[in-house]
Structures are given as C-alpha cells and as structure tokens.
Specification:
- The structure is a single chain.
- By secondary structure, the chain is mostly beta strands.
- It is about 0% helix and about 55% strand.
- It is built from no helices and 11 strands.
- It has strands at about 5, 10, 20-25, 30-40, 45-50, 55-60, 65-70, 75-80, 90-100, 110, 115-120.
- Strands 2, 4, 5, 6, 9, 10 and 11 form a 7-stranded mixed β-sheet that branches. A 4-stranded antiparallel β-sheet has the order 1-3-8-7, with no helix packed on it.
- A hairpin with a 4-residue loop joins strand 5 and strand 6.
- The radius of gyration is 14 Å and the shape is elongated.
- The mean pLDDT is about 95.
C-alpha cells in the first residue's frame, strides 16, 4: 500500500519561511510526477507546485519567486520551500504523487492527508 506523509507545517509570521516535506512509502516502482496542492477554507484545492521525475518544475502564479519545489528520487521525497510567506498562503497543504506500483501497471494518483500552514502575526 502506498502512503504519502507530509510534515513541516506550522504557524509562521508574514515574511517568514517554512519547508514542507513529503515522503512516499510502500510498493513503488517509479514516481512520475510529484506536486503540492493547497486548500484554504472555502476555497478550491489548487496546485501550488509541480515537479516531474527529471526535475522540471511549474508553479502557480501566486507563488512564483517565493516557493521552490524539489525532490529526492532515491529517498522518494518531495519538498516545498516556502519563503516570504503571506497570510493568503494559509491553507492545508497536500502532497500528491503520480506513480507506478508495478512495472507494467498504470500510473495512479495518490494523496497525503495534508499539513496545516498558518501565516499570521
């Protein structure tokens, strides 16, 4: 069974920084894409950052220049470095991964349970 677990969330002041981590465990042949999503109260879940297996990244316009996504394929981990945080960044952040559990299997999407990030004075 595949499991994604996020960590690193918490309370931070505006302008501060946090680094989120996501570790994938279980029977995994290869992880195709990894991404970070967030969902604020009353808002739609949105993609924040995305990274392919070979390191190509993409970001939501709202976080460009402030957030950096990275991954460690050997450790099956993804990271989200968040700098210059704003109150509007407050949300539950979710790790997402597209992966294969078998050599000839389909790529399926998995989600972590989320970690709370609160940006407030």
């Amino acid at each position: 069974q595949v499991q994604l677990v996020e960590s690193g969330g918490g309370l931070v002041q505006p302008g501060g920084s946090l680094r989120l981590s996501c570790v994938a465990s279980g029977s995994i042949v290869v992880i195709s894409n990894m991404a970070w999503y967030r969902q604020a109260p009353g808002q739609q879940r949105e993609m924040v950052a995305h990274i392919t297996s070979d390191g190509i990244t993409n970001y939501a316009d709202s976080v460009k220049g402030r957030f950096t996504v990275s991954r460690d394929n050997a450790k099956k981990m993804a990271y989200l470095q968040m700098n210059s945080l704003k109150p509007e960044d407050t949300a539950v952040y979710y790790c997402n991964a597209d992966l294969r559990r078998t050599v000839f299997g389909l790529i399926r999407t998995y989600w972590g349970q989320g970690t709370q990030v609160t940006v407030s004075s």
